[in-house]
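Q: How would the C-alpha cells look for this protein?
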Amino acid sequence: MTLKTAPGTQALLDLENRRPEVLFERIEGSPVPLWPQVRNAFSVELNKIDYPLVSIDAPEWSRANAWVNLARAFLPSRWDASRARKLSSVVFLVGGGTIQQLAGRQRNWLIEDFVERADGASVVQWRPLPAPGGPPSFSETWSLDRVTTRSAAFARLSRRDPEPQVRRIMFEIARLLDADLSHERLDALAASAVYAERQRPHLESAVGRILDRFSPSVVLMEDASYGAYGSIIKMMKGRGIHVAEPQHGWIGPTHAAYNFGEAMRQPELASTLPDELLTFGDYWAEGLRFPAPITVVGKPHLEANVARARPVHERSRTLLVVSSTADPDEMSDFVLRVRGALDGTWGVAFRPHPSERAGFEARYPRLADVPGVRVDSHADVYESLADVQAVVGVASTVLFEARAFGCRVFVRASPLLEHYVGDRFGDPLDGDEGIRRLAAELRSEGFAESPAQPATEAVWAPGALSRFDRWLAERLKTR
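A: Here is the predicted structure in C-alpha cell form.
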C-alpha cells in the first residue's frame, strides 16, 4: 500500500505550490523569510484538526529557576560551546536527547557510531551539560544551552520589535491555508515566532563565532529540515559547509518536515534546508517530496544491537505495547484488556513515549502499579526489543525496529495507518475481536519458533559504518 499524505501536510504543499508572495516575506533585519521558521508549527496545528491529540503537559516554568539558569549562563563552564578552541572538519550538531546510559556516561545513539569514524570530530548539542545521567561518553562534546540562554537575555534587552510584521505574515498565511485555527491558537503561534525572531540574531551571531573556531567542512545536523534554525543553515551553507541531516525517526509522505512544495525549491527558501538527507534505507524516501539529494547510510546502532540480541525463542514471553501518545484513557483500556485476555500466560510491558515519562502516573493512573503490567523504563528501546517476543502499536518507528529484532509485530486499527505504516504489518487489530486474535496468536503452540517476517534491507540498509565512511570521505574530498 502506498502511504497517503495527511490532509494537514497536503494543505501546506498546496499552499507552497501556489507560491504566494507572503511565503517569501522577511522580517526586517532577517536573512531568511519567516515561513520556514513557522512552517512546522503550522503543520502540527493542521494535523491536530484531523487527528486530535491529548496534550502532554510541559514542565512547570519557575521564575526562580530562570534566574538561576541566567546567572549560570554568564559563568565559565567546561561544557560551553563558545569556549571550544578546536579545529574540526566534521561537526555533529544535535539535540542531545537520543541518549543511552553506558558505564555511568551518556552515549548519543543517533550519531556516536558515526562520530567515532570521523577523525577529529566534535559534537555540539542544544541540551545542557553535564546531564543528570552523567557526562557524555564522547569527550569532545559541547553544549549550546548557555549560548541560547544568553541570546534570550540579549533579546529581552533589544529594542527591536518584530511583532507587528510577524503577526501580519502569520495571520495572512492562516487565511490562505483556510484552516479552522482559532484566534487563540494563532496568537500562541505568533507569540512563539516573535520570541524566536527576537532571539535569532543573537543566537545566529554566537553560533557563527563557534563555527569560526571549529571551521568545519561538513556539519551533520539533527532536525535540519524543520526550519527553526533556517538562518543558521543558510549561514553555514554560505561559508561553504556541507549540511547533512541524519534521519532520527519515522519519515514519510505525511511528515511535513520532509515534504515540500514548489516555493521551498526557490533559492530564498531552499537556502534554509540541508544539502542532503541521510536515511536508514531506501524505504524511507518513498513518496517524499524533498528538494535535496537523499542518501542511504543505514543505522549502525540498530545493526549492532540486532547482532547482539538473543534468538526470539530465548526471550521472555512478553508483549511490548508501544504508546501512540494520542489518547491515554483509550490506551489504558487496551493494555488492561490485553492483560485480561492473556490471563497471565504472557507478561505485558507498556512503553510510554519519552515525552510522557515525566508525568506518567498522572497521565496513566490506571497503569501505575497494576499487577501483570510492567512499565518499560529502558531509555534505549533496543534494550526492550532485545528481551521481548512481540510488539503492538499504532504508528511508530519502533514497529519497524521490532521487525529487525525478529519480534512478531501487530498493528492496531487507527486512521493513522494509511499515513504511517499502511499494510506492512498485516491486518490491523480492531476492537474486542482484534484483542482476541492477538491473544490467540500469542498463546498458539510454537509461537516463538514460528519465524517473523524479516525486516528488509530497504528499511534497514546493512553495512552502515562502511556506508558512512564512503559518504564522509566523498564529502570531505569535494569541500
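The chain has a mean pLDDT of 92.

The two ends are 41 Å apart (CA to CA).

Upvote if useful.
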